Amino acid sequence: MNASPAVTEADRREFREHGVVALRGVLDLGIIAALDAPVARAVAGDPSTADLSALGDSLTGPPAAAGEGRGRFHSGVDHWLDDIEMRHFATESPLPGIVAALLESRELFLYEDSILVKEPNSLEPTVFHQDHPYFSVDGDLVCTTWIPLDPVTRETGGIGYVRGSHLDDTQWRPNLFVTRDPIPGRPGRDVPDFHTDPGDADIVWIDAAPGDVVIHHARTIHGAGPNRSLDTSRRAVSVRYCGDDTTYRERALTPKPHHAHMVDGDPIGPPGFPVVHP
Ligand SMILES: O=C(O)CCC(=O)C(=O)O
User: Fold this and answer.
1) Whose CA is nearest to atom 9 of ligand 1?
2) Which of 5, 24, 144, 234 is a plausible cystine mate for 157, CB 3.0–4.6 Å?
3) pLDDT tens, 19-51?
4) Which amino acids bring their CB within 6 angstroms of ligand 1?
5) Where does the chain show beta strands of DSSP type E?
6) Would you say the pTM of this structure is higher than 0.85?
7) How far apart are the CA of 223 and the centre of ligand 1, in A?
8) CATH fold group of domain 10-255
């Protein structure tokens, strides 16, 4: 089965072996441009979007270099619930077909979307983490797509992925994303700080441009640096999807309201998990 010509057998092999693949130029630039408005709305005060720079400051104090002209790291999830353009992108663009083809999943379900904006000169790294313990699902066919709205390099907050880490079944503890502090009450081992000590980890830093889609397995450990550019934002949208083998497993201290009817072991499906493919 190949629901999308954008995905080749070599892409599927890369994803299976390394836990991450960059699909180049697979989304039309008009589709990417249509994300400008929902991302701007989210940053401008959507209640589901947080200022992670403020969170980091409250936990560890402002970074030494903080001063005039410091940018902010904005992040939020589940804009699809209220923002029709974000819902359209996550559910009706070519993206779900691309993901279904990569996972070789007959059906595909939406888990959540996220916006991740690092303004110019935003100092927070994205601490290395694994998505799986943040997600209230079990299954192998679970992944995160990352879609840049701006050209991204390692200097501007491009993401590094620990290749092969999705094959390790260590239970990693979720952290607070901008500091290594663990989310209280959650089990697991702390993810190593690959920013300061990469050791012999096989980390691939992926530069990306509008039109590209980088897809990683939910168990692949990844992190990003600050945006050191003084004039270029690093805006990205991430959409997380689940395939045929996925069941519900509550991990959050407070379930998402639209998942409140689910119990552990339930097969996922609408309304909490819209079918987005076929
Ligand atoms: O955009 C970032 O800095 C991190 C994104 C990420 O970790 C994710 O989407 O899973």
Assistant:
1) 238
2) 234
3) 999 999 999 999 999 999 999 999 887 777 877
4) 114, 116, 126, 131, 144, 146, 157, 159, 222, 224, 236, 238
5) 20-23, 49-51, 73-77, 108-118, 126-129, 137-138, 142-148, 159-162, 172-173, 189-190, 203-206, 213-217, 222-224, 234-242, 247-248, 275-277
6) yes
7) 7
8) Jelly Rolls (2.60.120)
